[in-house]
Here is the input.
Amino acid sequence: MATVIPHSPPEQRIARRSLHDEVVERLRDLIVEGELEPGKRVPERVLCERFGISRTPLREALKVLASEGLVELLPNRGAVVAPLTVTELDEIIEVMVTLEGLAGMLAASRMSDAAISEVKALHYEMLACHARADLHSYFKLNQAIHLAIIAGAGNATLVQTYGALNGRVRRFRYMANLSGERWDHAVAEHDEILSALTKRDATLLSRLLSDHLRNKYQHLKQAYQAGVEAAE
Amino acid sequence: MATVIPHSPPEQRIARRSLHDEVVERLRDLIVEGELEPGKRVPERVLCERFGISRTPLREALKVLASEGLVELLPNRGAVVAPLTVTELDEIIEVMVTLEGLAGMLAASRMSDAAISEVKALHYEMLACHARADLHSYFKLNQAIHLAIIAGAGNATLVQTYGALNGRVRRFRYMANLSGERWDHAVAEHDEILSALTKRDATLLSRLLSDHLRNKYQHLKQAYQAGVEAAE
DNA sequence: GGCTATCATTTTGAATGCAAAATTCAATGG
DNA sequence: CCATTGAATTTTGCATTCAAAATGATAGCC
Here is the structure.
């Protein structure tokens, strides 16, 4: 019995999109982009009507998203968009920090020059957004840079694992209203990151990426908790 | 809009087991324990009969397991038990090594004395199995020790993430026929691990756990590739 | 007036049914 | 004899249906 295949086949990805997969993706987007409020119940009926499908593929999609941690299924009581406790958030970030570190370590040696150039291009686009104070585009490019480096590690499992965690926290991370000072600091960190990547300094890149995410989250959390207290 | 809940609720886990969850678990076990051969097609019909259920909950379970990477769904062509390429295996281990390192770092400071004592007990049970050359029980206890340390990190997300990856490779890891020398070495590494944990030396424990997994896999892979070549 | 109990309605969990795609297998032609 | 084609059968994808649980509403009681 061969449990492991000696080397991977070409793996064409032409696979026709099933209705089920379509729904998983669209529903995931709705949740990740924050269009569906966390903690709110999501009756199957309204989603069916929204997507124009029957309950069977919708329920399949809900189970999948539940296993990803994006929705919570209450037995006999339907689905709710999974709320994040700060504890869970801390935990997820802790793991993501580690994975970013791994990505940096690997990407430094494995990324092609072309891929590094692309990151550089994204970086300068991001600087442009910073200069224009275009927060939304800045976030998009920021994410793109991080995902590019993760992908640059050449480890599909890492990409997938990171992606699953990222999906759970992205909603929260977009909430940040960067103060000018913090924003400048984040940009400075990104400069260092790009520099380390260009020099292919694995240890440094790894540390910078980990620290960057830790810092980003630290400030996000402070801002959030200040907001909570102000609201009370 | 509160995206994050300030602190976590008691979170009672009395939830009645739905038929769907039951099937996910049983099917996962069948795959992880190697009872279903990788790469083999799994017609819905035979699984339905095996579990005595209809296709609806079974199909839901298949989608979930597909999202965990344990089965592959070929559109209109059913499910196959996901085969592991050596590339994927390398990737998964790379991530698991990192996560073990994180677990060690955290567990060293966060585990309770009682939890450490339990690990110690498992360790000595494992030594007994080593002495008796009881490989199967040894593997079980080995897994239990690693899972206990991962759990000792006090990070549910880490447990879940590690568990998902572990499920994909466990089948393969059990295949190992440890040579006497390698087995002795693994036991020696475990001694060091227990010592570092007892001393709560985070850095050391982290490094030992990472190295241990890397070594274990390295040898497993060599043995496997030797086996493949011998079979040719 | 407020609270509980009972019943109607809605919603979920799972089985069944139906159409489309894939697989099987036999027959035909080279 | 082997390859190819095409119908019969099986299998999958999704919709529909049915039963059980939960929700909401109304009436009765304190």
